[in-house]
Each structure stands twice: as structure tokens, then as C-alpha cells.
Amino acid sequence: MDADDIPPLVAADCPLLDIDPAGRDRVLAAYAAAREQWLRLRKQAPEELANSEVAQAVRQIVEVRRRLARQTYLVGFLGPSQAGKSPTVNNLVGRKVSPQGEGEATTCVVTRLAIAPKDVLTLHYFSGERYRERRTKLCDWAQLPNTDNMTEAQVLDKLASHTPSQKPGSSARRVLAEDVPYLRCFLKSHQDHAAGLIAPSGKAVDASFEQRDTLLTHGTGLASSPSLLLAEAVLGFPSDVLDAKLELIDCPGIGASRSVDSLLTKEYLPTLDGALVFCRADEPFAGTVEELLADLKDSFTKHGRGGLASRVWVVVNKMDVPSREAKLGDGDKSLFATVRKFEPKHGIPLDQIVFGCEDIHKLAKKGPFDRAAALDKIKLEPEDESVVAQRLADCPPLQKAFEGLLTDGGVGYLRTLIREVIGKAVAGQILRDAEAVLRDAGVELDAAVKRAGNPLKAGELQAARLWWSVISGQTAKLSSRNAFFEERGKQLRVDLEAEFDKAAQPNTLRLMSPDELLNMQYPVDAAHLQDELARRLDQMNKDGFDDVATALAAGNLPELDVRGDSTPMALWRRFRAEDAGNTAWLADALPTLYQPALLGQLASPHVATPLDGATYRALLVGKIRSAAHRGTRLVSDRVRSRLKQLAEELRRRIGTPA
Ligand SMILES: Nc1nc2c(ncn2[C@@H]2O[C@H](COP(=O)(O)OP(=O)(O)OP(=O)(O)O)[C@@H](O)[C@H]2O)c(=O)[nH]1
Ligand SMILES: [Mg+2]
To answer: Could you tell me if residue 232 is left (phi over 0), alpha (psi between -120 and 50 degrees) or otherwise beta?
Structure first.
């Protein structure tokens, strides 16, 4: 298939989407429409296909197609090394298929687990090109640049006297302890084993299923081995516990001692449709977990919009490790409080969290056991259950996960998720992402078709480019921190404080008054300040628009048709009209100065300061500060996003602005 070829796509090509026929048909229609545009463009104005934005849109459509036409979903098992990924894979399957270890990093090859009629192991070796890419990356990471034209022996020679340096505070990637030894081993593996294994277009070799332990794991110490030349391995086996539509991928753990393990995982992220991210219960937010989640967010946002919801499930494993205190404490740092942060911090809903413990699973496998025994495995007493219930009272999803933990170490719960939830959720997310991408790509192609049908004349083109550069310049100006809005934000704060003091001055009584009086005064001050804030922000909004309008007018540029409006200036004026008015542009997010709890909080026993006039003033000044700050940001965001919209319209009209 040509890289920019968009073949048709029909329902039969997308077996996984049967789950949601209506959604599937909508997306297929969007795909067909985008394809139609592309065919038209190819026929009427093939030169437009070279436009970088158009080419990008085409690439995105091809990528969406690849995802929609998947035969299986790929769900990665990711996380720090030793988090228990491979053991969990095995518990899920009910059989030791994936090699697992004791006390040392284990999995060294990305291993796909697929359902097959009988046990099979297929090894996929690097293609020549992928080997070179990997080599270059490893050399770069070991601070050995420009090795592309050297032989393995030459690089090894260079490595013999190579000591990577790490200047303190340098932003360069840190060279980990085993990076150089690993690179040496990698090169030697190539010298010893490449012949016959590394072919230009990659090579697949069948191996014995029984040999998987030696082939797919790190041995003790580093030695030259054909395994280092593996791109991935496929372990096939019969199973009726897993959903045949899901393929689980056991990835090497991300460790502290060598970069290559994280590289292997990271390279795999773009192919994944979903992931289980493992973390250890004693450090759910370890650096490696955070980094992984950030990478996953990047990867899933690149192909769509959704982020981690319906994409990533977190397995908080080794629940036996944290102490009783760490689990039950009511502080912010206790386990249950920490786990809840996956939602605000990473956008992972709490029904995407699972707890795991291997020892409880072992109990369950042996036969019936009582709850006390399960609790004992995670260092809890029977009476602690009520404390857990209390901690999780407002959080049914975590209650469910905890119940799953006590039932069989979380394996059954995870199995249900995998069989009944993950496939459906991922399919839904793929459909939503696809729709959004196709819509955007459609707009881009549509613009190209129109552009080709109604090209700008030379003079217009010049004018349009000028408009575009004026607008881009304005956007940059409004983006820089010290520009327009920052000064106005400061001024706004000063003005509002003065406004408050002015109103407060004559009422000196208040500076000493008791709680009740201040409580009466508060709504009056808050209402007044809220009005002032809205009035001044509105003015700032108007000034922001006027400032841009002045800059646009100064260009004294000729008429130019953008989206039916006569000029970019007219379009800008229309934005202004839409955003004018006291409240039209104010998003819900604007902080309000009415907050009934404010005074109550201050008078609570936790606050040592008594509620007097001075405290009251300090309180309102703090409130003014945050209101002014956030309000200013809202206005500046609004003005900037309108500018960007305008620049985008122009770019579509011009094609390539520069
Ligand atoms: N304490 C405790 N140990 C566990 C639990 N689950 C797994 N383990 C142990 O943790 C170790 C981790 O096994 P590995 O196979 O290395 O885990 P992995 O995450 O696949 O690691 P890599 O392959 O190195 O990425 C094994 O020794 C398991 O027995 C658990 O719930 N609690
Ligand atoms: Mg493993």
C-alpha cells in the first residue's frame, strides 16, 4: 500500500467494532466522506497533496483506518520491573505461559500472548533497518554520537575507552549504570548471531514453547545472545479464559539500571489500543509509573483526543507490602487517599483501578478460605474491614476493587474487566477518537478542495500572507508572559483591593466587630466585588479585542474572503460581538467571590486566628488575588483562542502561509 493511499473501508473490515454498530456506521460514513474528498482532491488538484497539512491529514486517515480495521485489540502490561506483570498474566490465563522471575528483572522481549489451537512460540527478529535504528538510539543514549557509518567492531573499539560524562544540572538524558555494558553486549550479539537471523525485511522463526524461559528473559549477567536481536515474540496457546479479541502484550519492566527496557516499552506504545499499568502498592506514583503514564497520554492523544480514560487500567499490585498503618491511615499519604489521585492527576477514573495480591490468589487456588486469612495476607485484622469500608464509603469503584482483592487477589475482577469491559471501552474510545480525527482531516481536505477550485490571485495571496503574519505576531505577543494581560491582571488586583478598602473605610466599626456583623457584611462586599470584577474583566476583554483590531487595521490590507466573511477584520469584529457583554465570555470556571463556607471555615476551631476585621480583610484580599488572576487568564485564553482560530482559517485559505 502506498503511504498516502486511502482504500475504502466497510463494516466487514472492522470485526471489533461490531460491539457498537451505530457508532461503527457513523465512523464509516465519516471515513467514506473524508475519502471522497481525498479522491476529489487527487483528481482535481493533485499538487495540493504535497501541502504538509494535507499530507498530515492523509496520514491521520490512514492511521485511523489501521486502528479501525484491527483484528485484535492490543493491551499492554506495562510498569516498573518486578511489579508482577508476568505473574499476573499467568494468573489470568491460569497457566504459567509468560516467564516470571524472583528478585531480578525478568522479561526482556516484548511478548504478545495470542490464543492459538496449540502451544507455539514465534520469534520475530529485527529487520536490518530496525536493528540500525536501535543501534543508533542506544549509541546516542550512551553519548556516542555519529556511529552510523561504523561497523560493530569499530563501535566496540570506541566503547573500550568511552566514559560517558554527566554534568550536574545538564538536561541531557542520564546514562544509566548498565547502558554501556548493554550496548557492548548488543553489538556483540550482532557480531555473533546476526547472520541468518537479521534479514532486510525481518525474519520470523518458530521455536520450542518449552524454551520460552531462556529465550525471553534476561539471564543473570549480560552475555551475547540472539535474544537481544528480537523485535518481539508471540506466545500462542489455547485458552477459554481470555477474550479472543484481546491480545495481551507482556512488556519488559521499566527499571532504574538500563535505558533499553524503557526504550522497548516506549517504542511499543503507539501500537497499543489500551494498557494495564502496574504499580507497587508501596509506591503507586513511582517516577517510572509517572513517566509511563505521561508517555501513554501523549501516545493516546496523538491518535485521538481521549487521554487515559477508557484506555488505561491501573493495577495497584503487591497489596501485601505496605504496612497496616500505610493502608489505614486517614492522612493524605495513606494508600487509599493516594490511589484516588489517579483521577485528578492523570484523568484515570477510579473504576479503572484494580488491587492485586499474589498470596491471596494462591490461597484461592488451594480451595475455600475465610476472609480473615485473606485480610491477614495484606496485614489487616478482621476488625479493620470496617475502617476500610469507612475510607471507601464514598467510592463504590474502589470498594469493588477491594472486594475483588479479598476474593482471589484481584484476578477474577481483572479477568472480568478484560473479558467484559476493556474491549468495549477501548472500542468506544477508538470510535470517538476516529470520529474526531476524521472530522478534522475532513475539514483540512475540504479546505484544500475549495482552495483548488477558487485559488487566490497573486495580490490576494500576498495580502493573505501578510494578514496571517500580523495575526501570528499578535498571538505571540499575547502569549508572552509580560505582555498585555499580565500588566492588566496586576492592575486589576490593585484596583479591586482599593475598591474594597474604599468601601470598608467609613465602616471602621467592622475592623473590630464580632463574627455576626462580619457575616452580615460579607455578602454585601462579595456582591460588590463580584460586580466590579465582571465589569473590569469585560473591559479587559474589549481592550484585548480592540488591541488586535488596531494591529489588523494598521496593516491597511485589502479585502480577503475567509469563510464567507469579507475580511479577517470583519471576522474578528464578529468574534468580538459574540464575546461582548457582561457574561457571554465568562466561562463557568470563573471564581466567584461568594463562597458561603469562607467565613465559617475561618471561624472553625482548626484556624487559630480569631475572626476580626484584619483577618477578614486578609481573607478577602486573598480571594481577590485568585479571582483577578484566574479571571485575567480566562480573558487572555479567550482572546488568544479566537486569534488562533482566525490564523487557522487564513492558513486553510492560503494553503502554506510562509
Ligand atoms: N509480595 C508480593 N510479591 C509479588 C506479588 N505478585 C508478584 N510478586 C513477586 O514479584 C516478583 C515479580 O515478578 P516478575 O516476573 O519479575 O514481574 P514483572 O513485572 O513481569 O517484571 P519484569 O519482567 O522484570 O518487568 C516475583 O518474584 C513475584 O513472585 C504480590 O502480590 N506480592
Ligand atoms: Mg515480566
So the answer is: beta
Q: Residue 472 carries which side chain, given as an amino acid letter?
A: S
Question: Which ligand lies nearest to the CA atom of residue 88 in the structure?
Answer: 1
Query: How far from 27 is each of 144, 432, 624, CA to CA, in Å?
Result: 47, 8, 47
- The per-residue pLDDT of the chain, averaged, comes to 87
The radius of gyration computed from the CA coordinates of the chain, to the nearest angstrom, equals 31
**Closest listed residue to residue 283, CA positions, set 257, 316, 314:** 316
Starting at the edge strand found earlier in the chain, the sheet holding 353-355 runs 203-207, 120-125, 230-237, 111-115, 246-250, 73-78, 274-280, 312-317, 353-355
Q: Which residues contact 500 (CB under 8 A, 6 or more apart)?
A: 525, 529, 617, 620, 621, 624
DSSP states of 352-418 as a string? GEEE--HHHHHHHHHS---HHHHHHHTT--TTHHHHHHHHTTT-HHHHHHHHHHHHHTTHHHHHHII
13 vs 569: CA distance, rounded Å: 47
Closest residue by Cα to atom 8, ligand 1, is 84
Q: How many CB atoms lie within 10 A of CB 139?
A: 22
The domain ranges of the chain are 11-69+429-450, 457-654
- Euclidean distance between CA atoms 580 and 578, whole angstroms: 6
Amino acid at 78: L
Of the candidates 445, 435, 454, 456, the one whose C-alpha atom is nearest the C-alpha of residue 53 is 445
Closest CA to 582 of 630, 547, 530: 530
What cell was used for 237? 496457546
Residue with cell 489500551: 274
- Three-state DSSP at 12 gives helix
Model confidence at 316: pLDDT above 90: yes
Residue-level length of the chain: 658
| CA distance from start to end of the chain | 32
Helices (H), 94-202: 128-141, 152-160, 179-193
Which of 77, 78, 81, 82 to probe ligand 1 with, by most ligand atoms within 8 A of CB? 82
User: For residues 583 and 534, is the Cβ–Cβ distance under 8 A?
Assistant: yes
Residue 260: its pLDDT value, please? 85
Mean pLDDT of 394-412: 96
Q: Please give the distance, rounded to the nearest whole angstrom, from the Cα atom of residue 318 to the centre of ligand 2.
A: 14
Backbone phi, then psi, for 496, in 5-degree steps? -70, -40
State the DSSP H helix or E strand holding residue 280, giving kind and residue range, or none if neither.
strand 274-280
Residue pLDDT, tens place only, 65-81:
998 998 888 999 999 98
Phi, psi of 110 (to 5 degrees): -65, 120
Give the Å distance between the CA of 252 and the centre of ligand 2: 6
Q: Is 357 in contact with 327 (CB distance < 8 Å)? A: no
Asked whether 318 lines ligand 1 (CB < 6 A), one says yes
Of 270, 344, 317, the closest CA to residue 76 belongs to 270
Split at pLDDT 50, 70, 90, the class of 345 is very high
Calculate the CA 97 to chain-centre distance: 31
